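Researcher: Let's run the pair from yesterday's discussion. Sequence first, then tokens, for each.
Model: Starting with the first of the pair.
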Amino acid sequence: MNPGITIIGLGPGDSQLWSQLAAEQLRQADEVYVYTPHPSLPDIPGQLRTITPPKDQAQSPDARFRYISAKIVRLAQRKASLIVAVPGHPRLDDPVTPHLCAEADTAGLPVTIVAGLSYFEALMTSLNLTETHNLQLAEAYKIASLYHPPLEPDRAAIVKNIADRPTATQVKQTLLNAYPEKLHVTLIHNPGTLTESMWAGPLYEFDSHVQLSPPAFLYLPADTAHSGFSTFQQTIAHLRAPDGCPWDQKQTHQTLRPHLLEETYEVLETIDANDPEALAEELGDLLLQIVLHTQIATDTHEFKMGTLIDHINRKMLRRHPHVFGNVSVNHVDDVKANWETIKKAEKAAKGQVDDNASALDGVPKALPALAEALAISKKAVRVGFEWPDVEGVLDKINEEAREVAEATEPSHLESEVGDLLFCIVNLARWQNIDPESALRATNARFTRRFKQMESLAAAEGQRLQDMTLPEMDKLWDKAKALLAAQKQ
């Protein structure tokens, strides 16, 4: 027997699938440690010793795996050699093996792996798969612990070792964050054995078909209706390559600047229109700009996609300590206060603290005027420059309206109109209304009503420019009524 710990793979089924080396070592062993059920365990001649974590150590898969690993290492430190038998191939199928190898290495114990036929080969046969170069593999307990699966939907995937229905339900919820609920999937129990069974149906149903005896494996075919992010990056990289598109090849950050702004406004338009289908399309166009900018940066050795994703991901982790740390919050205002405190700490760490800095610094210069006014107003409020109540804002609006009426010089009038608009932005802030969105909605509403007026006038054989103002007022009221009735 090998010194230290020997981990033997039992393959996916009965003892006929043992490798010759595995069979030889198992038949020579006086005792074999196991921690997972397997159909070939009755064929092991030596005494089986089962390691079962106590309930307080089995609350999570990782805790269970750590307990088993630590237990085996402690036993191995008292024996010249110790044999552990696991399903399938130790490195491909057993989630405990990585923990056990790490624990043994720390303890200075050698580990010998005796390979076994893996479940992967059995699954390939059961599913009649012929290509594996794009196949993704994921552990069920890992998927179950996430909110979004680390899988590309346009590539086939296998979720391994689904132990029970609660785990299956958690896996399903995570997968549904990336996959359509009606994706046709296949669930396989005990692949490569005489008791193998298979179920096929929509993703949203699969967890109700998980049997109580593991192992179970879920096969997700490539979803041809949805592209993965890597696939999209490949498309853009190709467009920028020497054999790509002449237009894309010539673009720079500066030449794309107007397109980025245009696509942003088109996204806002679909949000205002409450059109999810159009929103998905326009967000895709906006994403194109981000990926194209990033590919330009990659080509010019500025940064890569991983850089910007890592930057924003780390920022979200830092700025949400109430989610990813041990900070407690009671209200959304606490979240905002923490956010500002963390931002200041980040700037200090970068040496960006300026004793002469203004409370109004940091407002993007390219913002539309209403959005800029709102950002300035919010920053001023943080240092206490604020009306005590909304009545103060309304009084200021009335005051500015009077000054507009009294202004005579064009430059003075422009200034007073600007003051009035700024006060109205503050009123919107007090009422938790985004002034930019409010005005865009009003613009859209006015446009719909005006076009309805034009249609009503045309139906009467008239043109608006030939009508009197009272006549147009009547048409306006009629247009409002018609549009209101259409919404009911």
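Model: Moving on to the second of the pair.
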Amino acid sequence: MPTELVFRDEPYAKSCAATVIGADARGVLLDRTVFYPTGGGQPGDWGALKLADGTILKIVDALKGTAPDTVAHVLEPGAVPPAPGTKVTAELDWDRRHKHMRMHTCLHLLSAVLPYPVTGGQVAADKGRLDFDIPEAILDKDELTRKLNELVSGDHSVTPRWITDAELAAQPELVKTMAVKPPTGYGRVRLIEVKGLDLQPCGGTHVARTGEIGKVEVVKIEKKGRLNRRVVVAFAGV
């Protein structure tokens, strides 16, 4: 039974009612969840499962389950999984998730500022990075910081939409990542659009407007090979 991915259409949902449908080698499986599983450079969510009798089971990670289209909620060591059929409330560590949303959207802005193929990336609660396949060039941290914050303060809308596999195949320029290709074969692909700035396939969670990101700064630029350049962005003041 697939997991209903509440976060996909409601990224601001902090909790949801759910029913335990079982467990696999990775964790507890629910019929629906607000927990984003690790993938696409974004970490899995943390939080808790709250039972009707007051029991609270801490969730220390969320992963893709061993069965297709399922999410495994990883319990802390020693915890006993609730039995199938148990009614629970799945509740996020919202502060951490919201930081992931802000930084993930920020990295989409970075890919707009630096329009080069992306060879890797990672989101964290305090910072994020993108690796670019970029010709020999001098990248200026202050200039990149200025451009990023200009886009952030523009308060552009950020919205998901879907296209068919065929439409994506006809627009290969939408795929910026070289190492990871968007999943196809399901009939449609989810896009994230930063209005007027960026459009690319993405299954992650994002804020609704760029102004919500807050002030950021480029803290490091590293040479990771002859062409690869790693740009690290952090929330300002963190």
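Researcher: Give me one sentence on the second I can quote.
Model: Helices lie at 6-9, 94-113, 141-153, 165-169.
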